[in-house]
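Obj.: predict assembly geometry.
Materials: sequence records (below).
Method: joint structure prediction, all chains together.
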Amino acid sequence: MDQEQLILQFQNKDVKAYEKLYNLYCNSISGVVNNIVKDNDVTQEITQDVFIKAWNNAESYSPQKGRFFTWILNIARNSAIDYTRSKKFKQSKQNLNADFFVDILETSSSLDSTTNTIGLTDFVTKLGDTCKAVIELLYFKGFTQKEASEELNMPIGTIKTRNRTCIGELRIMLGV
Amino acid sequence: MNTKEYIASGILELYVAGSLSEKENEEVYATILKNKELLIEVRSIENAVLQLTAAAKKDAAYSFDDIKAQLTVKETKVISIKKPKTNWLQYSGWVASFLIGSILMYTLSQNTQLKDQVANEKQQLEEQIDKASTNLADAQKLIDIFRDKDIISIPLVGQQVSPTSYAKVYWDKKTNSIYLDAKGLPDPPKGKVYQVWSLKLTPLTPTSLGILDTFTADANKIFTITNENQSEAFGITLEPAGGSLSPNLEQLYTLGAVSS
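Observations (raw structure tokens):
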């Protein structure tokens, strides 16, 4: 089924359509949340909460504002970041802020056979530091182009082209 | 910028990341809508990012059933079907207020009507009282006349033309006037009028005392007439309108002689 069609049905509160979207995106959302909160139980809780939030705010999504995946990704990042600002998080986790998605991939013990995780890990390990940092900030942390440019001390234009190159390599590796 | 250059710019990767401004997002969306090749590119980028991010997942596998129960299917649809159903409470409310309004209007108009009627009746009553008191005064006057010892009462009896007719004359010689009670006469036919005569018997000399041209209109049928004659009898004849010089004795209705 066409993804646009699925999203329309979801906005009309079609549970079946939403189940398909859930299965498509839950692992990615979990990955992004995990990269921020770094706790499996909390990740699971937040991820499910993200999908409930998305359902309850279905009418606020509009294709004009961006991709559905991008929209739900945004909800996930915000929920995870909100959690990191909570007292609970600050008490339990203090020294994990430096971890990048790369570290998670490299230390991942629960490899999911349905995704190309092994190849991905190899790929990510071989990525240059700039690529790792750019992907981390733009996709996992939700930085804007400008914020990433300031964080990495790089001109905006360079972020844009660098990112394109990094994703390009990833696509070649994944064959998409 | 052609499609290739647009793709090469890296804007689509940022679009999927959500790193563009709201305005840029709308522009990219509009551009993609016009160009299928760009949509394919976006889907491909999205797919790559999807797999990359999913690779960072470490927690247990997900099942939609875990959240399904918490997805509230809003009742809006059901309500929207039910809503067109007649809202009796609302309708009866409107009907009730309309009824109350109508009754109020009706009552007001009835009230006004009653007020008018009362005012009307009051006026009529006043007129009647006025009339009655006038009548009473008239009757009082008549009684006074009848009781006066100086007044002579002369009954006039019905004649051949109208045997059932009768009349009465009260003659007040002091004031040279007679009071004629003509209640016992029928209404004169159209174009005719009663004429009152004073008679001397030997020889028979009639003198007209006048016509009763207000006979039909007069309620008590009592007429005051001046009479300076030495009358020996009184008679009433039916004459053409305007009266006659001498009585038509064939149309003599009543006649009565002064007794003394």
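Conclusions so far: The domain at 3-92 of chain A is CATH 1.10.1740.10 (Rna Polymerase Sigma Factor; Chain: A).
To do: check interface contacts against the pulldown list.
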